[in-house]
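@channel anyone free to eyeball this complex?
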Amino acid sequence: MDIFEILLSASFWTAAIRIASPLIFATLGELICERAGVLNLGIEGIMVAGAFAGWMAVYSGTGLWMGVAVAMAVGMLFGLVHSLLTVPFGLSQHVVGLGVTLLATSLTYYAYRLALPEVTSPPKIEAFQPYEVPFLSDIPLIGPALFAQTPLTYLAFILVGVVGLVLYRTPLGLALRAVGENPSAVAAQGLSVTGIRMGAVIVGSGLMAVGGAFLTMSAFDSFFFEMVNGRGWICIALVVFGAWKPGKALLGAVLFAAFDALQIRVQQMPLGADIPYQVFLMMPYFLSILALIVMSRRAEVPAALMVPFNKGER
Amino acid sequence: MNQSRNTKSFGLTRRRFLGTTAGTALLVAAGMPGALEAAEPLKVAGIYTVPVEQQWVSRIHKAAGIAQERGDIDYVFSENVSNTDYARVMREYAEQGYQLIIGEVFAVEQEAREVAAEYPDIAFLMGSSFKQDEALPNFAVFDNYIQDASYLTGIIAGSMTETGNIGMVGGFPIPEVNRLMHAFMAGAREMNPEITFQVSFIGSWFDPPKAKETAFAMIENGADMLYAERFGVSDAAKEKGVLAIGNVIDTQADYPETVVASAIWHFEPTLDKAIAEVRAGTFAAADYGVYSFMKEGGSSLAPLGTFEGKVPQEAMDLVNQRSEQIKSGEFTVEINDEEPKSS
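replying in thread with the prediction:
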């Protein structure tokens, strides 16, 4: 297969959308946090916790969607910890975020071992199966890629629309964007900057956890400790790539995933034998950085990102 | 099941031991080398960078559990120790008077050897990509040299692939992975010299979704037989209805319609040899890799199970013939640690 054949194959785009799905959830989550002025570096750990919590819930007998809800709730709990420390207490968002990542990963492992002290290999669950949307999945190329995925992938795409709508078309979205730009103005309106920011971080963290849960409940059917494998950090970059806009962030996630799906396939082409495999593994990151440079030139960073707000302070 | 319960309860006593009589640990350590009584179980500690469920480590953990049940050793372990923490944990166990410390130093080769040099009276048996060093007599190395079994699974794979296209997904191209892949490929070529191989490394030990994606791509590209070096590969094979070959552990129970055969690693001969050497006071720098060879009982071809009778007879004949020859030393599977490439 040459590159064009790969790019024109439905299975390639199906893989790209599948790889993108967890990134879409987590990127949206991070985007909500940052739009409210809080950088959430807890993302990697929260994804690990979500991956475990959702899978464990299903393994313990709840339904799949209940598992997603459990993952979300666990993510929100870590979001609460993060936001308490960064918003009312105004602590360093870098330190708190990394702290939350370390805490969440370690606690997850602890919980895993308590729950499953004697397993020989991590147990499997009945994961989400692909659902083919009638008629739409018959469209060539786009059909299988977009409409023959697991329900969680559909949810990810729907959420992009929902988040965009809320951010730009509702008073809540206006207030959320405003606390990330000019919190004093929001406070002057009589709204609680602390409340809005904490709410954003909590909801955003919930979405990150669902992104993690996608890995254990949709992409795979079992939990492994290091399986999030840096995907959270990629989402931080995708938010910048998307210029803090949900639609563009979705584009970034799909683009990154497409690069990844492509490198997997190009490795098997004749030139793959001559080029070290590390170069291929690096490609998605390298190309994303290039795209980031181009895309982020006109990006507007939320003016109050990483600036704690103290009521009454000038 | 039983064995891990034992290790768990021992973990509790260790905690108590630590909490109340930290001082005795030093005494034990000081008086350790010669003052051993044969009847007393050897104090063994395992240090693993991954959870004990991981294929490779699970074999060590299992062997240690068996030795403990036999009463040969008292076994404790720390799992999921990060590489940056590895030397500290080694020191902790060394200070507590453990006599034999087993583990894996693939990412801390230099540092682990430095720690071992500080505790010359304690035996270290470590999984390593390198060889022993005579200047460091208390540090022996091992690895899963199960190329004999991998070769046999290759013969089976070669006879079962219809497209003549085999996909292989690995974590990193380190010697342990490479040599098994090469042995597998050599076996497959015995049945069909024309077979082509797709080889990919995913740059991670634990990313089943990624391993699965890579396997999907190989199946799209014509592979109908996969070499499942990583978790996730057999899942892709199962979903797409192609076959897979297992590695290190037997995963057929999870994939009865998919996994044809597996090359199994048995750590027992390696550990038992080390226990005997420490007891005899003759533990020395050596490469314990040979105790993973098939003739030492360190590796085997898993029972075909659900695929009994489905593998072509000529392949099974060759498998049986080669097993005999390997055990008698007539036939040696080549050890090739170079990075395998797609063909």
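from a first look: Chain A touches chain B through 37 residues (CB under 8 Å).
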